[in-house]
Design brief:
Blueprint lengths: L4 E2 H9 L4 H10 L3 E2 L4 H9 L4 H12 L3 H4 L3 E4 L2 H6 L9 E22 L2 E9 L5 E9 L2 E18 L2 E9 L8 E2 L4 E7 L2 E8 L5 E12 L1
Amino acid sequence: MSVVLTNVKIEQLVQAGVSEAEIAHIIGTTSTFDFDLRSVSTDALLKAGVSEDIIKAMAAREAGTSVQQAQSGLVQPTKGAGSASSNQASLPATALTVTATAYRIVPHQNSFDLQLPGRVQTNCYGSGTLNWSVSCSSVVTPPSDIPINISWIEMYEQVTAGGLVYTLKCTAHWVGSACTILTNGDQFAADINGTTMRLTAHRGGNMGKIVHMKYHVLDIR
């Protein structure tokens, strides 16, 4: 059973001393979440010690999981020389145009318990001059475990260019990642440098957002 990542669990992670980088990774990869990002709730998060960067990561994850964006897994190629000209200066000499021919998706999931240590908070107050009266109270928080589910996919693509077949791989850790499916038969502006190939495309049609995809080249034949 998936555990929903909420504002309260984010606060628990911060109070347990988990680094911002690790919390951001958990936010980006957890399978289920339910954040409350109303102004009153974000103010409460800030008062609890949650940084603005973490709140921004929560907001970005929410924005990246809309139905419309989740369904835009297929990306469309850039059209015309004008689309690629803006990136021409940064491309190495080995620029080429590739044609997508096949793809394979391999899903992965990892679950583990994040252990939060227990703590004791004691408050004391007193009064008097010669005869002191002191009263103390303690709040004990026992140790607890937060189940974390991390999901990711490996994307294998096969593209052709100049009579060669390239087998590529990328990894997507969150919905809306630039590592997405290439539409078979479409052509993409690309460049290759050693074992790295970068492709440029439009997400969601020719008028969509330009995305730059980075692949590891597994094989050339």
